[in-house]
């Protein structure tokens, strides 16, 4: 369990994720049944921690503004979040939400790359990130769907000092052209993948809980994937390896 209970993540490694939802209680019911999560009674800020077998795996938060998207956001580890935020602008991206402390848990920021794909940065305090990953019901992968994949390589390779897409990169983050999976007009975006033991059973459960399949199962180099939408409109992928 040592790999899953990672106490620290190197710069540029996906280390956390959260969902902004209109109805937090509905989200707890949906993801609790789909992935077997339990939820803390106590909140930090307005967010609630989701746990699998006692370890933190994600957070759900109620949307404070109806104009905000209903979406899953991935956070990349940032040992020095303010220095990293400064490099985003230099690389042609934009800081959407400046670094801010989240109680004693850490410091978070939101950013967008040059094509507009939104992602988070996380500098840990008492909360290093995922307590479990790479197993059913937890984070398995995040895919960037970009229009210009070479430009994405250059931006993220420069931002995280070559930590991604290159030799030795931790196999948690990939990139592909939007048109490989989605209609060409789909905006560039990150897609969080959850590992499941049985892809067909997971899709049946998503449908029963009021979600829907957005992209039917297809094969990738990292497993069989389907893209789904939850019962409130947040897209994510389920992955069977």
UniProtKB/TrEMBL annotation:
Q: Pfam families per the record?
A: Glyoxalase (PF00903)
List each copy of the VOC domain by range. Answer: 13-124
User: Sorted alphabetically, which Gene3D superfamilies does this protein's record hold?
Assistant: 2,3-Dihydroxybiphenyl 1,2-Dioxygenase, domain 1 (3.10.180.10)
Database matches in InterPro entries: Anthracycline_SecMetBiosynth, Glyas_Bleomycin-R_OHBP_Dase, Glyas_Fos-R_dOase_dom, VOC_core
Domain of life from the UniProt record: Bacteria
Q: Which PANTHER family match?
A: CONSERVED PROTEIN, GLYOXALASE-RELATED
The protein in question is named: VOC family protein
Which source organism?
Streptomyces kebangsaanensis
For this protein's source organism, the top of the classification is: Bacteria, Bacillati, Actinomycetota, Actinomycetes, Kitasatosporales
């Amino acid at each position: 369990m040592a790999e899953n209970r990672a106490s620290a993540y190197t710069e540029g490694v996906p280390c956390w994720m959260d969902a902004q939802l209109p109805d937090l209680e509905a989200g707890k019911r949906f993801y609790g049944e789909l992935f077997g999560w339990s939820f803390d009674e106590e909140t930090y800020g307005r967010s609630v921690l989701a746990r699998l077998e006692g370890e933190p795996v994600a957070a759900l938060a109620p949307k404070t503004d109806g104009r905000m998207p209903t979406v899953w956001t991935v956070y990349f580890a940032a040992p020095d979040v303010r220095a990293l935020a400064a490099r985003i602008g230099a690389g042609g991206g934009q800081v959407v939400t400046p670094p801010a402390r989240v109680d004693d848990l850490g410091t978070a920021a939101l950013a967008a790359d040059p094509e507009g794909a939104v992602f988070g940065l996380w500098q840990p305090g008492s909360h290093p990130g995922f307590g479990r990953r790479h197993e059913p019901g937890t984070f398995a992968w995040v895919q960037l769907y970009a229009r210009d994949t070479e430009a994405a390589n250059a931006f993220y390779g420069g931002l995280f000092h070559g930590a991604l897409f290159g030799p030795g990169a931790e196999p948690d983050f990939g990139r592909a052209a939007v048109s490989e999976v989605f209609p060409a007009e789909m905006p560039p975006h990150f897609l969080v993948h959850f590992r499941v033991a049985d892809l067909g059973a997971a899709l049946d459960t998503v449908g029963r809980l009021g979600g829907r399949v957005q992209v039917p199962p297809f094969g990738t180099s990292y497993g069989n994937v389907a893209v789904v939408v939850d019962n409130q409109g947040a897209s994510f992928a389920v992955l069977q390896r």
